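Now for today's protein:

——
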Amino acid sequence: DDDANPTDMAFDGDQAWVALQNADSLVKISTKDGKVKKSIKTGKFAYEGEKSPYVADIELDDGSLYVLFQRYTMDENWVTTYPKGLLAIYDASTGDLKDTIQLKSKNPSNVAVIGGNVYVATHGEYNAASGTDADSKRGIEKVNVSKKKSEVMISGEKLGGGVASMVVEDEIAYVAINLGYDENYAAVQSLKKVNLSSKKVEVIDGFTDMSGSMAIDDGLLYVGDRGASAVVTWNGKKKNTIKQPKGALPPYNIALF
């Protein structure tokens, strides 16, 4: 419907789950004919006075749909309150709610399920410069689903700030750290490589603004670098800028097929 505001999709064969943020629902659609097969209302997870719990990310893994809620609220003066984030797990076939897990930090950005392990990246609250502080109030959490607990395993102190976005493959995560905005209101970010097993964090130089999305496939990282107005790849050793079509706008999102 109008103003439904779809925010993310997760594909499962010839069907897909779509998060509708303003319609406070998750819908399962057929990719063959576009018909809605199932709908789940999410409004009960909204924070005080809000209709939507504000889905940040959804992921499918082994028959489960992982849904990440930011659960913020905003007053008439645009002052935003962030409670701690929430992870909900649904049965991807029936749509039944299986569990909810309270996160340790605020304003989550991404969830990834790798080898049975569940990781959640959190941005946390903004500072006065519209960036994030390098503190323990944000970072990468590891979720223990069976015990219904989540702990910050790599904090913002080690990462250098809050995680604006994250992609993961084989226990290797690439995260964009929000440092603020420049005088032209362009995002200023730092790209970090994180080994989720050893918790080692490395800086990847030469990238300035990953807000044009990231994707990874077989070790090759694709970055929508809006600072370069191009899609740039990183193979672990060097960058390669993909030639953009003439007149193309800066990248906004990346999907790999």
Q: What stands out?
A: The first strand starts at residue 6 and ends at 12. Residues 90 and 98 are 5 Å apart (CA to CA). The radius of gyration is 18 Å.
